[in-house]
């Protein structure tokens, strides 16, 4: 493997690790000696890669602004473009703009051949779908509450038009083909519930964070959905 390719591969491996990984493990994955691995680590650090660690303990890639040129396969490029185009079509205005901006940034650092694939992909997301019911509460209200782990008080009308006021712990927004759904823990029902955003008449934070971590709630919600799917 050429050194440039090996350095990019090393960065990719480190990106996928959540905990420090030893030089022996990294060297084995790259099929090089530990001595070569140490030289590669030193070279990446000199180039600005935010790698933290030391010999005998392990290395981890810290969050940072270092971004080498993207080396994506044709299939990887297709997958990224398809996903971003789908978000552009079916996401809310904020996500639509973010998808366009992200695609422009990715295209800017791709080599010429990959740029052509990105601009004229084989896989397309299908016709634009813009017939979502209108929301009375902006999606940004839900997104902000999710990020802050804030409890929301909502006025909700069900399929039969029956209105209820509930306190919920919002954890995710689902972008379906016909509607958008807010996944949340409902204090009234003491269970996970899904609320169509177009049926939420009002929503406001009550000034409380919900307990625990959102990541754990999402894990529990997924487990609950898996159990329902098995029935």
UniProtKB/TrEMBL annotation:
Q: What is the name attached to this protein's record?
A: Transcriptional regulator
Q: Where is the WYL domain?
A: 139-203
* Organism, scientific name: Labrys okinawensis
Which Pfam families does UniProt cross-reference here? HTH_11, WYL
Domain of life (superkingdom): Bacteria
Q: Which residues form the Helix-turn-helix type domain?
A: 6-60
């Amino acid at each position: 493997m050429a050194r440039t390719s090996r350095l990019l591969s090393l960065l990719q491996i480190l990106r996928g690790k959540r905990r420090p990984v030893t030089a022996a493990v990294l060297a084995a994955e790259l099929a090089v000696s530990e001595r070569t691995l140490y030289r590669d680590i030193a070279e990446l650090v000199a180039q600005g890669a935010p790698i933290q660690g030391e010999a005998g303990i392990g290395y981890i890639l810290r969050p940072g602004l270092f971004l080498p040129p993207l080396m994506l396969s044709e299939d990887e490029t297709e997958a990224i473009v398809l996903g971003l185009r789908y978000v552009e079509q079916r996401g809310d205005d904020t996500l639509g703009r973010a998808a366009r901006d992200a695609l422009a940034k990715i295209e800017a650092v791709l080599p010429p051949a990959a740029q052509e694939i990105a601009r004229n992909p084989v896989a397309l997301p299908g016709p634009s779908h813009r017939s979502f019911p209108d929301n009375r509460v902006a999606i940004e209200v839900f997104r902000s509450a999710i990020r802050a782990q804030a409890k929301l008080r909502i006025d909700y009308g069900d399929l039969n038009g029956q209105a209820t006021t509930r306190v919920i712990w919002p954890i995710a927004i689902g972008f379906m083909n016909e509607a958008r759904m807010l996944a949340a823990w409902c204090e009234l029902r003491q269970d996970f519930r899904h609320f169509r955003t177009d049926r939420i008449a009002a929503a406001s934070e009550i000034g409380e964070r919900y307990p625990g971590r959102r990541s754990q709630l999402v894990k529990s919600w997924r487990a609950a959905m898996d159990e329902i799917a098995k029935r």
